[in-house]
Specification:
This protein is largely without helices or strands. It has one domain: Pectate Lyase C-like (3 Solenoid). The chain is built from no helices and 3 strands. Strands 1-2-3 form a 3-stranded parallel beta sheet, with no helix packed on it.
C-alpha cells in the first residue's frame, strides 16, 4: 500500500497488521470530528515517510511499527500507544503526547519544551534522550 492515496476516505476502528504503508499523506483523509475510539490501529507495520500533520488522532495505536521520518507536528496523539515503535527522525513539534505509552520505543527525538508529554510513559535507556534539549552534561560516573 505504499504511496496509496486515501483522499476523502474515512477509517474508524480500522486495524492494519504487518502492512507496508510508506509515504502516505493521511491528512487528505476525512477524520470524524467526534472520536469515540481509536480511529486506526497499526501493529507491526511500516509507515515511514508518512504525514499525520495536525490531525486529531487521540488513542491511535502504533505498536511495534517502523515509523521513520513520519510527520507528527501539531498532531494530537494523546492517550495513544506507540510502544515498541522505531521513530527514527520522526518530527514532533507542538505534538500532544499526554498520557501516551512510548515505552520500548526507540530512536525518538522529542523536545519536552516544545511538545506536551504530561503523564506519558517512557522507558530507559531511551528516555535519557529527553534530556538532550536541556543543554546539560551527564556524567556516567
Amino acid at each position: 500500500m505504499n504511496l496509496t492515496n486515501f483522499d476523502g476516505s474515512t477509517f474508524t476502528e480500522t486495524e492494519f497488521n504487518q502492512c507496508n504503508m510508506k509515504g502516505i499523506n493521511w491528512t487528505k483523509m476525512s477524520f470524524p470530528y467526534i472520536v469515540l475510539g481509536s480511529p486506526i490501529h497499526f501493529t507491526s507495520c511500516e509507515i515511514s515517510y508518512s504525514s499525520f500533520y495536525e490531525l486529531n488522532l487521540s488513542s491511535i495505536s502504533l505498536i511495534n511499527c517502523k515509523a521513520h521520518e513520519v510527520d507528527f507536528r501539531g498532531t494530537n496523539i494523546s492517550n495513544s500507544d506507540l510502544s515498541g515503535t522505531d521513530l527514527l527522525n520522526a518530527q514532533f513539534n507542538n505534538t500532544n503526547l499526554n498520557h501516551s505509552d512510548i515505552r520500548k520505543s526507540i530512536n525518538y527525538n522529542i523536545n519536552p519544551t516544545e511538545n506536551n508529554i504530561r503523564k506519558a510513559k517512557f522507558s530507559l535507556p531511551e528516555a535519557i534522550g529527553l534530556l538532550n534539549f536541556c543543554e546539560i552534561e551527564i556524567d556516567s560516573e
